[in-house]
Structure formats: C-alpha cells, structure tokens
Amino acid sequence: MLARLVDAIPPLRQPHRGRGRPRLRPAKLHADKAYASRANRALLRRRHIAPRIARKGIESRTKLGRHRWVVERTFAWLLGCRRLGVRYERRADLLSGMLHLACALICVRFLAPADG
Fold first, then answer.
1. What is the mean pLDDT of residues 94-114?
2. pTM of the model as a whole
C-alpha cells in the first residue's frame, strides 16, 4: 500500500532554487510504527525519500507527534460534520461535494475574526 500511496503523490510545484533539478517528490516521509518494515524503508530510499518512521521498541512516538497532530486534528474537524462520519451518500460525487463543503466551512470558521 505504501508504494501506491507514494506513487500517487503529485509532482511538487516549488520555485527552482538554482542547483540541480527541482524535486518531484517530497524529501522525507513521516509515518507511524505501522509502516516500520525494511521493505517500506527500502522502497522510500529507492525513490530518494528519507524515511522518518518510528521503530518498534526503540523510538518513542513523541518525535512523530509534532507532525502527526495536524492530520489528526483535521480529521477530527471533518468528522465533526456528522454526514461525513457515517457515509449516507451512495454516489461518490455527492460525497465529494459534502467533503468540499465541510472543508469550506472549516476554513470560514478558522479564518473568521473572533468577536470578543
């Protein structure tokens, strides 16, 4: 699954900094202990991506927690919209529309000035 996930990453659009070709893939990948296998690490190294994967029994998960909480928080915000928590829509386009609407509402709530 990790190989398909990494291959599905779209090319990065960054300003060219001068030396060498611009990167098409991220420089490193943060993952939890579920991805800690030699095969996954080798797969990432072949694609010139530095693996930042916590090793079972060696490293604590607090190092990865700094980066992971952003994703977990965003999922929690999305699951606050009850229609996304349990999928009622059968059609993918309706689900996608609900997801876009939820993201828009989250952005409006986040960017709205706090009236104090």
1. 87
2. 0.51
